[in-house]
Amino acid sequence: MMNIILFGPPGSGKGTQAENLEKKYELLHISTGDLFRYEIGNQTELGVLAKSYIDKGELVPDDVTIGMLKNKVNANPDVKGYIFDGFPRNEYQSEALDNFLAEKGQTVNALLQLDVDDEEIVKRILNRGKTSGRTDDNDESIIRNRISVFNDETAPVYDHYDKSGKSTKIDGIGSLEDIFGRLSAAIDAAV
Ligand code: C5P
Ligand code: MG
After folding, report:
1. What does the alpha-carbon distance between residue 22 and residue 118 come to, in Å, rounded to a whole number?
2. pLDDT 10s digit of each residue in the chain, 191 long?
3. Which pLDDT score, from 0 to 100, does residue 191 have?
4. Which of 22, 70, 95, 114 could anchor a disulfide with 8, C-beta 3.0 to 4.6 Å?
5. Which residue's CA is the closest to the ligand 1 atom numbered 8?
6. pLDDT on residue 156
7. What counts of helices (H) and strands (E) characterise the chain?
8. Which residue lies with its CA nearest to atom 12 of ligand 1?
9. Total tally of structural domains belonging to the chain
10. What is the whole-number distance in angstroms between the Cα of residue 14 and the centre of ligand 1?
11. DSSP 8-state assignment for residue 60
12. Among all ligands shown, which has an atom nearest to the Cα of 40?
């Protein structure tokens, strides 16, 4: 098994790159943001709850997110590994993920952080908002709050995996192909 955390601020290109890495390495791409949006689209209880946080750019409570993530992994056991996109979002979630994988005799093999500066992020997300239909992509103050939440709550996840030498920073600026090449090289080096 090979388990990769694709990490980085909102709008850093995680989703786009994860789709290509999923094919190359035959992993299952799990985007917790996409799972929430699916629930919101179906107006489930989970979706209604998640929307109240997402619309402010805040994090959905840990137990909700962790439960949803575990369900997705448990429903898809026959894969070569997982690409976690948008999860873990804080230190608590990373410990929950480590324990969950350990119960299965697995571990996180690498965390790859896509580095993109704040002004580029705001520009990219506002542009994505023209077609994404996401309310949280269309309001600059919500976007800036998402960046603050990333810096305050999510950034420590990098250090969590850096302690065991698993974290790597990747330049997230450039062509999709170039960034894909950098990510692939980092994965190949990690396994
Ligand atoms: O990962 P993505 O940027 O698609 O997430 C969109 C929103 O979903 C976040 O701003 C946050 O409100 C919520 N989210 C969360 N916890 C996660 C993933 C997403 O609260 N693990
Ligand atoms: Mg995404």
Report:
1. 27
2. 999 999 999 999 999 999 999 999 999 999 999 999 999 999 999 999 999 999 999 999 999 999 999 999 999 999 999 999 999 999 999 999 999 999 999 999 999 999 999 999 999 999 999 999 999 999 999 999 999 999 999 999 999 999 999 999 999 999 999 999 999 999 999 98
3. 83
4. 114
5. 33
6. 98
7. 9, 5
8. 54
9. 1
10. 12
11. P
12. 1
Q: Note down the domain range covering 155.
A: 2-190
Q: Which of 17, 54, 84, 141 to mutate to test the pocket of ligand 1 (most atoms within 8 A of CB)?
A: 54
Distance 10 CA to ligand 1 centre (A): 9
| CATH code for the domain in which residue 59 is found | 3.40.50.300
**Residue 189: alpha-carbon gap to chain centroid:** 21
> What pLDDT is recorded for position 168?
98
Cβ–Cβ < 8 Å for 83, 140: no
Task: Give residues (CB < 6 A) around ligand 1.
Answer: 10, 32-33, 36, 53-54, 57-60, 65, 86-87, 89, 136, 146
Hey, what are 46's tokens?
């989970």
102: its two tokens: 């350990």
